[in-house]
């Protein structure tokens, strides 16, 4: 019993030392920061090299060995092949002839066109308002003339 009481007393003292920060038996924390995992990124040269090696594989199991050696999945190889085919297809499409359009100049032309269209629409709106005002005045004049003639003639 005496041994258990001594053990309990030592545990209580150690807990008090930890709480006050006077613990000499506690190891200091590890200052090393654990690196976070990042995805591998293959350069275009690496992709082309791996695709060329995969295209050169003719025997059964060679592509699997290549994938294991490079540490990639077959789905990634398939994605790279699709992208390569799309790039090759785009390169074979006919190119637009002539000078290439300057984006700044195209933007300025578009702005000028929109400004002209805005001015034209404002003039049309002003003309429509003038026509509506004239129609109102004519209607008022004709309305007064019909009120003056009680026999029903206008």
Describe the structure.
By secondary structure, this protein is mainly α. It contains five helices and no strands. It has helices at residues 2-20, 44-56, 62-70, 74-92, 103-148.
Rounded radius of gyration (Å): 44 Å
How many DSSP H or I helices?
A: 5
Straight-line N-to-C gap: 130 Å
Structural class by sheet pairing and helices: mainly alpha
Q: Which regions contain 5 or more consecutive residues with pLDDT less than 50? A: none
Order of helices and strands: HHHHH
Average of per-residue pLDDT values: 83
Largest sheet: none
Could you give a short description of this structure?
The protein is mainly alpha-helical. The chain has 5 helices and no strands.
């Amino acid at each position: 019993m005496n041994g258990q009481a001594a053990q309990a007393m030592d545990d209580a003292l150690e807990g008090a030392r930890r709480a006050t920060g006077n613990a000499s038996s506690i190891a200091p924390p590890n200052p090393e920061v654990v690196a976070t995992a990042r995805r591998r990124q293959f350069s275009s040269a690496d992709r082309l090299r791996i695709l060329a090696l995969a295209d050169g594989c003719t025997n059964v199991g060679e592509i699997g060995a290549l994938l294991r050696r490079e540490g990639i999945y077959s789905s990634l190889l398939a994605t790279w092949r699709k992208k390569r085919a799309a790039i090759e297809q785009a390169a074979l499409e006919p190119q637009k002839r002539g000078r290439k359009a300057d984006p700044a100049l195209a933007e300025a032309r578009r702005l000028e066109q929109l400004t002209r269209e805005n001015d034209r629409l404002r003039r049309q709106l002003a003309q429509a308002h003038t026509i509506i005002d004239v129609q109102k005045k004519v209607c008022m004049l004709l309305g007064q003339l019909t009120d003056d003639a009680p026999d029903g003639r206008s």
